[in-house]
Amino acid sequence: MKTAVITFPASNCDRDMAVALEHVTGKAPLRIWHQETHIPDDVGFIALPGGFSYGDYLRCGAMAAHSAIMQEVKRHAARGTRILGVCNGFQILCEAGLLSGALLRNKGQKFICRSVSVRVNTHSQFTSAYHAPAITLPIAHHDGNYFADERTLTHIKDKDLIAFQYCDAAGNVTQEANPNGAVNNIAGIFNDSKTILGMMPHPERVVDGQLQGGTDGTPLFKSIVEALN
Predict the structure, then answer these.
(1) pTM for the whole structure
(2) Domains in the chain, ordered, with CATH?
(3) Catalytic residue (one of 72, 141, 167, 204)
C-alpha cells in the first residue's frame, strides 16, 4: 500500500507521521507539499498531520483547507481513499467540509499537552485491531474542543461515527475525563462511509515503545494497512 503525508507551512508532526507509517508499513510515505496539485491515484492512505498550519490565522485549519493540495485530497476522498487527520489535520478536514463539526478553543483557554485515556470505536477499518476498552494517547492542542449542533450530533451518534471519546482508565466516559470541553467527550469522528478519520490525540507519537514509551498508536496504523492490503 502506498501512503502519503501532506505538509503545510508550520506543520510540525509531519515527520512523526512519516516515521510512524514507515515503522508499520516498512515503506517510506510520499511527502507532499501543500502547493503541489497532484496525489498519485495509487496512494491508498493520506495523512494530514498536526501542527499550526499557516500560523493558525483566521481559525485553525481554515487557510490550509484552501491550499492547492486540498482539491486533490477532496478528489481522493470522493474515490474512497482512506484519509487520517490528526490534531491540526482534524481541524483542516472539518474546515474543508470533509468531516462535520468544528474544533473550538479549549474550555479552559489553555494549551493542553499530556497523555489521556480514550475509548475506541472498533467498528472501522481504522480501529479494528484495537481490543482494550481504553487506550492511552498524547494530546497537544489549544483548539481541541469538538462542537457540533444537535442535528449533527444525533446523526453521528445514530450512524456510529464517533471514533474516540475521552474516558477514564477503565473506559468509562465521564465529564471528569474530558480535557477540553468537547461535546459528548468526542476526541475523534468518522465521515459517513468511515473512510475518513479525524482525531485530536496523536497516535503517531506512540508507535515505538522503546523510544516513545508506548505503542497504543500502532494498532490504528496496522488496522488500515491490513484492511487495504
Answers:
(1) 0.96
(2) 2-228 (3.40.50.880)
(3) 204
Type of residue found at 223: S
**Cα(134)–Cα(63) distance, integer angstroms:** 34
- State yes or no: is 95 an active-site residue: no
- Catalytic site residue from 60, 87, 94, 167: 87
| Cell digits of residue 170 | 477503565
Average pLDDT, stretch 11-16? Answer: 97
| Close Cβ partners of 84 (under 8 Å, ≥ 6 residues apart) | 45, 46, 47, 48, 126, 196, 197, 198, 199, 224
Q: At what angle do helices 218-228 and 14-25 cross, to 10 degrees?
A: 60
Q: What are phi and psi of 103, to 5 degrees?
A: -105, 115
Query: What is the distance between the alpha carbons of residues 114 and 108, in angstroms, rounded to a whole number?
Result: 15
87 is annotated as an active-site residue: yes
pLDDT at 109: 93
Does residue 133 carry a pLDDT above 90? no
Using the predicted structure, report yes or no on whether residue 199 has a pLDDT greater than 90: yes
**202 is annotated as an active-site residue:** yes
Radius of gyration for the chain, computed over Cα atoms and rounded to the nearest angstrom: 16
